[in-house]
Specification:
By secondary structure, this protein is mainly beta. The chain has no helices and three strands. Strand 1 and strand 2 form a beta hairpin.
């Protein structure tokens, strides 16, 4: 099967959290999955705010 997207990210938005799921196809054909959950509170200290995956997902 042909790979159309090598990197993709989906978001699941809830009232208290946002869950991000990143799927990447590696050079050997295996799929790597990363899941991260972030709080949606506006009062979260800067050190706990979500950081991007840093993987150039589409």
């Amino acid at each position: 099967m042909q790979t159309l997207v090598e990197r993709g990210c989906g978001l699941d938005v809830h009232q208290a959290t946002v869950v991000a799921c990143l799927l990447m196809v590696l050079k050997n054909g295996q799929v790597q999955k990363q899941v991260r959950t972030f709080a949606t509170a506006c009062c979260v200290p800067v050190s706990f705010r979500p950081r991007r995956f840093g993987n150039c997902a589409t």
